[in-house]
Amino acid sequence: MNTRPAVFVDKDGTLVVDRPYNVDPALLAWQPAAPQALAALAQAGFAIVVVSNQQGLALGRFSAAQFEVLRQALQERLLAEAGVELTDFLFCPHAPLASGAPACACRKPEPGMLLAAAERHQLDLAASWMVGDTLDDVEAGRRAGCRSILYDSGGETLWRNGPLRAPQARVQDWDEVVHRVLADARTERPEPGR
């Protein structure tokens, strides 16, 4: 039974400043107000799940062990600095095809990571949100049955539009993300017994 809504969050360019192929925890820098925003969303009852494409693993830019150090550091800092305990942190280790299309079911814009997290943690996808800085993030959320927010930090450069690539909101700061998600949660929460 799927019971809890989630906020799925892209890592690079959304949660943290995008530094391509970085695995050095010392270089992790939050997007402005991101930890505080996740704390507000977690306090409101949302599971917080990071979903991240990490083609650097397939390309040999860093090892699985190096990425694990970074993942642990990110989780520990979120907990220490904002009291946010991630429900999960999923990543796709595959590179795209030469055409740029996903070569697997987990690489965004495919919804595989979101669907896996929903099954693992009994998440209500229809009441959940995907927040990311590219239209591939938006599409992954929409394909999984979530609503999507484009966090416009400059990550999207191609602007390939399509019906599944239209976000419910386009924002430039994390305060706007929180406002939109919580406003919709208040107006769309079903009455008990319905």
TrEMBL record:
> Which InterPro entries does its entry note?
HAD-like_sf (IPR036412), HAD-SF_hydro_IIIA (IPR006549), HAD_sf (IPR023214), Heptose_bisP_phosphatase (IPR004446), Histidinol-phos (IPR006543)
Naturally occurring in which organism (per UniProt): Rubrivivax gelatinosus (Rhodocyclus gelatinosus)
Q: Which UniProt keywords apply?
A: Carbohydrate metabolism, Cytoplasm, Hydrolase, Metal-binding
PANTHER family attached here?
A: D-GLYCERO-BETA-D-MANNO-HEPTOSE-1,7-BISPHOSPHATE 7-PHOSPHATASE (PTHR42891:SF1)
- Where is it localised? Cytoplasm
Q: Where is the signal peptide?
A: none
For whether the record's keyword set contains Hydrolase, the answer is yes
* Domain of life of the organism encoding this protein: Bacteria
What is this protein called in UniProt?
D,D-heptose 1,7-bisphosphate phosphatase
Return the similarity comment: Belongs to the gmhB family.
Which Pfam families does the protein's record reference? Hydrolase_like (PF13242)
Q: Which Gene3D superfamilies match?
A: HAD superfamily/HAD-like (3.40.50.1000)
Q: Its Enzyme Commission number?
A: 3.1.3.-
Q: List the SUPFAM superfamilies hit by this protein, alphabetically.
A: HAD-like (SSF56784)
